[in-house]
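Chapter review: from sequence to fold.
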Amino acid sequence: MSPAMGEEIVDRSEGFGERLLGLLLDRARLMPPQLIAPLIAEVVARVGGSDVSILLQDYAQELLVPLSGRKLHVGRPEPMADSPAGRAFLHAEVVEVAQARGVRMYLPLLDGSDQVGVMALTLDAVTDDDRRLLRRLVALVADMLVTKNSYTDQFFLARRREPMSVSAEVQWSLLPPLSMSVPQIEVAGMLEPAYRVAGDSFDYALNDNILHVAVIDAMGHGLDAASMATIAIGAYRHARRVFVSLAETYAFMDDAISRQFGPDHFVTAQLMHVNITTGELELVNAGHPAPLLIRDGRVVQQLESATTLPVGCGGEEPRIAEHLLQQGDRVLCYTDGIIEEHVAGGEPFGEERLIRCINRLGEDLSEAVRADLRRLSHTLKGERGGHTSDDATLFMIEWRGGAADHLAVLD
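The token string follows.
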């Protein structure tokens, strides 16, 4: 039927790029995990690409390791530092490297704003149309990898570079994505030692304009600590999802730990609310080192709060500390494993040395919190002699302010 006089004609014809993306979408629901690789390679071949590699970050965040699969090019792991793949991963940007027979492209695989890995491929030449189509393709590939990850151990095994303890298995299954970025705020976290972590954990959620954050450290080691951390995070999530205050969240977690484990067990915790529109920060600090406020690359103060007993000790209702962030401020939370590690001479690493490391690295900050936090974590590990005998967690928040409403409006 032809359109009536004055009626707008909407073009719903299918172009080449839409057909390719539609092919992936149509098959994704029923696709077995082991067939994702050959399907991706086939789609890339349709746009003239070859030597397709899927690189996933290892758990220690040191390497990008190739996923094996039919039709995939499987080379050596790529270091995150000083490699094109690492730059694409850490800075969420497309990197192009000229080669004798074309251009090698490294495209970040992003699940939302969290890095899944990198897809690498070679084209004879690259046009703006190629770049646009491939950016959209890798977004869909990342979603497929994350979805199918719940159904298989294939991706886990690719990322694992050494044996993992049972307690670490528990902790990694508990974590949210290691990073999140929206226009107003960015967060990133790291756990050490990646393959033996037990009692440390963190959690976050962005609900409307409030970022909810918890960083915890359960006493002890091994499965006992992992069990306490699991209960603490579970209680935290429950309290957060029934919309109670920070003080009530602390009380709920305290009750859960004391009931389950008795009076001789406890979990230290930091609980925060950050208003991503105004920069207002609320803090409960239950036995943790005070978070550090970083401004223009330097530590300017500790974010102090009233003394609160660790979770599980039956403490009184905590008083909420309030702070106001400036645009560009970063807040670094860390557990005591960072500063209590003994270094040469038997002295603890200490807070002053931590601050010196932050200030030294702050002279060369990047725009990506995840990249800077990874660099800080590996620098600290080197300063501590290259090992971590206790759990050591870092969690960083950068507040940028502004609004994101424009993202919901189609141009």
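Two observations follow directly from the output. The two ends are 29 Å apart (CA to CA). Residues 118 and 268 are 36 Å apart (CA to CA).
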